[in-house]
Amino acid sequence: MNGFLILVPVFIFFIILIGLGFYIQKTSADARGENYSKDYFIGGRSLGGFVLAMTLVATYSSVSSFLSGPGVAWQKGFGWVYYASTQVVAAFLVLGVLGKKMAVIGRKTDSVTVVDVIRQRYQSNLLANISAVVIIVFFTTTMLGQFIGGAQIFSAVTGLSYVHGLIFFAFVVVLYTTVGGFNAVAITDTACAIVMLIGMFCLGYAIISKGGGIENIMATITEASNTAVATGEGFNMLSPTAEKAGVASIPVQLFITQWMLCGVCTIGLPQSNVRCLSYKDTNSVHKAMLYGTIVVGAMMVGMHMLGVLSRGVLLQIETGASTDTVVPALISQYMHPFLAGLTIIGPLAATMSTISSLLIAGSSAIVKDIYMHSKEEKGEAIDQKKVGKISISVTAIMGIVAVLLAVNPPDIIVWINMFAFGGLQTAFFWTMLLGLFWKKANATGAIWGMVGGLAAYCITMALKIKIGTFHNILIGVGCAFILFIIGSYVGKPVDDKVGKLFFPEKY
């Protein structure tokens, strides 16, 4: 009976998402017209401020925001909340730095994807194709982590097996994304973001209620922290650096790289950049910057704070279990079944919204940036009905591949996400930032920076080579910058036509 009550709100939410996908596909003005790709991949540049903010927030808020992050906060304490707060600036930076210029360029060049913008800026098919491949590889890696997390939550709370949870969960998100395209993703992302907040508040109420109030919870946390410090067997949960046996587990270097990885360098995430091509006017992007910052702050700080406070309720986890099990344990053990069902929708929504955005962006890299461009180069006519069928097929196939890879999951999701984030940022941070704001940037610099930076990042990650306790994102982004600058001075300057398009104020 409890399992049934948990599943009721989850099933209702899933049905709503699938229904939205089919409804939007049916009512989309250009669903079968000559602008199919523009409608399917960026929603016809029609997003308003609130929807733009929510889809950006939902894309950025992944399963690690609701699962791994709060779990680590349960273990390490308030230092991890501060560590996570770096993410608050993400929406503001992406829209504030790139938003306006990408929108202007997108309309001038009729660009539908990030790779379209890169191709127009650098006039290099080689760079564009490399960019498309990088997007496909790292998006699949990121989706892998999301599918694993969603299935684990679904399984832990409902009692279904991991594989059954994975199949059911994946079927829903792949179906509504494949059918509805970008408009469905934007609308369902908005619904998911709202549900995330509801889920967070439900979980917060349960934790504070079961813990006997904030005062009692803090007393329990303080006692646990003091015991850990005295024995040297746990973390100082009240310290910003979460010392264990006198050694900081969150050193200053890690804080700095977190600001890079989840703060400043989010400018280089293609799944966020493409949102800059989808809004309808300047007023929309200004509102989205405000709404997005508020909601990201509430969810990132709020969920990690709840992770710490849950230590006042859940004193320990099973021996050998990952901290990823903390939130599912809280939901299943300390909440009324129906409320547990409502709450579980929050992390599931975070997971689904990220997957749907990655599926659309990854599909566009194959269909728009590789298939359609090759047709255009050959001077061949593009059949929009055929493009529609290919887009739907590619989106579905990408989702299925990620699901198959997720059948045998690794231990902790947060590190999969961090690796993929770092790879995408290494590849695209300077490519986008310098490309849009530095006139001397050229194809040679961009190719050297992207390929060399990614090689440095992946090799040092594989060999576990670090600079102190800094994350390897500094190595990747640092190498990419040096190679980008050298290549830009060695290579051929951009022609005046491109210069006038991207930097009209200098001509």
What does this structure look like?
The protein is built from 21 helices and two strands. The chain has 507 residues and is mainly alpha-helical. It has a single domain, classed as Sodium/glucose cotransporter (Up-down Bundle), CATH 1.20.1730. The longest helix has 49 residues, at 162-210. It starts with a helix and ends in a 5-residue tail after the last helix.
Distance, first to last CA: 71 Å
| Secondary structural class | mainly alpha
In total, the number of strands is 2
Count up the helices.
21
Which strand order spans the largest sheet, edge to edge or round the barrel? 1-2
Q: Helical amount among residues, as a percent range? A: over 70%
User: So what's the CATH class?
Assistant: Mainly Alpha
Give me the oligomer status: single chain
CATH topology grouping: Sodium/glucose cotransporter
Provide keyphrases for this structure.
single chain; 507 residues; mainly alpha; Sodium/glucose cotransporter; 21 helices; globular
Short recap of the structure:
The protein is mostly helical and 507 residues long.
Write the layout of secondary structure elements.
Elements: H1 2-27, H2 36-42, H3 49-60, H4 63-66, H5 68-76, H6 78-84, H7 90-109, H8 114-122, H9 125-158, H10 162-210, H11 214-231, E1 243-244, E2 247-248, H12 252-261, H13 270-273, H14 282-309, H15 326-334, H16 337-377, H17 384-405, H18 413-437, H19 443-462, H20 473-490, H21 496-502
